[in-house]
Amino acid sequence: MTDKRRHSDPEFGGSDPDDMLRHRFAVLRREEEQHAPEFATLWKPRAGAPRRKFRWFAATVCALIALLAFLWIRSAQRRPEEIAVASITDWKAPTDFLLETPGRELLRAVPEIGQWRVYATTPGASPSPAGKKVLQ
Amino acid sequence: MDQTDFRDELEQLHSASFGWALWCCDHRREDAEEVLQAAYLKVLEGAARFDGRSSLRTWFFAVVRRTAWEQRRRRWVRELLLARWSSQPALLATSEPDEALSSSEEGHALRKALAALPTRQREVLHLVFYQELTIEEAAKVLNISLGTARTHFARGKARLRALLEEEARR
After folding, report:
1. Mean pLDDT: which of A34-38, A42-46, B49-53, B146-150 is highest?
2. B64 in Cβ contact with B56 (< 8 Å)
3. H, E, C per residue of chain B
4. Over its length of 170 residues, how does chain B's per-residue pLDDT go in tens digits?
5. Do B7 and A43 touch (CB under 8 A)?
6. pTM, to two decimals
7. Would you say the ipTM is above 0.85?
8. CB-based burial of residue A17 (10 Å sphere; 0-12 exposed, 13-18 middle, 19+ buried)?
9. Of A113, B49, B90, B143, which alpha carbon lies 20 to 30 A from B67's?
C-alpha cells in the first residue's frame, strides 16, 4: 500500500490524531532502526549439521522407547490369562460333604414307574434291597 | 523465488524485522537479535517456507512472532525446571528492556504508554503505525480475524491517545 493511500484510508486513519500517532511511531522507528545489527551477522547458516544429526538420534531413541513401552503394555495385558487362578464358582469348601443329606437325590429326580433306581451317592450309605419296591 | 532474490528481499526488510523482533521481545535487544537469527535460520533450513499466500513482509513477521513466542516458552520451561531442581525461585524476566534504544523523550514516552496497553492492542498498533501495514495485513501476521484486529486497533488507539495526553499534561 502506498503512503498516499494509507493516509487517505479512513480505516488506516488519515485524521489528525492518527497523524500525530504516526509521527511519533516514525520517530521511534528511526531511533530503533539505528540500533539494528548488520544483516550479514544474523543471516548465516548453522555451522555443520550436528543439530540435524541430534534430531535423528532423538527421534530414533523416542521411537525405541515407544516400541518398548508398547511391547511391555502388551505383555502385561496377556499376563492375567496366563496365570491360572481358581475361579470362585469352582471352589468347594472342604466341609461341603456335611451338607449332603441321605436321600436328597429323591427330591431332585422324578421317579419313574416300574423302574428301580439305586441312590448310592451318599458316602457310607448303601441301598438296602429290602427297601426296593416296585411302584405300581 | 530464487534463493538470492529471497535473501535480498529479507535484507531489505531487515531493519523493519529487527524493529518487530524488538517489540516481540519487550525491547530486549539481545533477545531480539537471537529471535531474528533463529527466524533467519528457519528460513535457511527450510523450516519456514514462503508459499506466496501473503506478502513476504506479512509472512516473515509472522515467523518472527512465532519464533519469539517459542523462545519465551522455552526459557520459561527451562527456568521453571531449573528452579525446581535448585529449589530457588525462577527469574522469568532475565533482562530489562534496553532503554538506550530510544534516545528522545518523545520515543521514550510512546514506549512507556504502549507498555501499559494489552499485548494484542500493542501489536496491532505497532504493525499499523510503525510497520505501516494495513489492518488486514496485521491480522494475518497475528493470525486473528480482521474484525478482531479492527477492534484491537480502535481500542488501542483510543487508550494510547488518552495515555499520551495524560503524560503531556504532567
Report:
1. B146-150
2. no
3. CCHHHHHHHHHHHHHHHHHHHHHHCCCCHHHHHHHHHHHHHHHHCCCCCCCCCCCHHHHHHHHHHHHHHHHHHHHHHHHHHHHHHHCCCCCCCCCCCCHHHCCCHHHHHHHHHHHCCCHHHHHHHHHHHHCCCCHHHHHHHHCCCHHHHHHHHHHHHHHHHHHHHHHHHC
4. 677 788 888 899 898 999 899 888 888 888 899 999 999 998 888 888 888 888 889 999 999 999 999 988 988 888 888 777 766 554 544 556 666 666 677 778 888 888 899 999 999 999 999 988 999 999 999 999 999 999 999 999 999 999 988 887 87
5. yes
6. 0.60
7. no
8. middle
9. B90
Q: Is the dihedral of CA B101, B106, B109, B113 positive or negative?
A: negative
Q: For cell 538470492, what's the residue?
A: B4
Size of interface A-B (CB pairs under 8 A): 87
The three cell numbers locating residue A1 = 500500500
Chain B contact set for A9 (CB, 8 A)? 134
Return the closest-CA partner of residue B72 out of B108, B13, B21: B21
- Judging contacts by C-beta atoms under 8 Å, the chain B residues touching residue A43 are 7, 10-11, 40, 44
Q: Which of B19, B45, B110 sits opposite A33 (nearest CB)?
A: B19
Interface of B with A in 10-49 (CB under 8 A): 10-11, 14-16, 18-19, 22, 29, 33, 36-37, 40-41, 44-45
Q: Tell me which residue in A22, A32, A45 faces B44 most closely, judged by beta carbons.
A: A45
In chain A, the residue whose alpha carbon lies closest to the alpha carbon of B36 is: A42
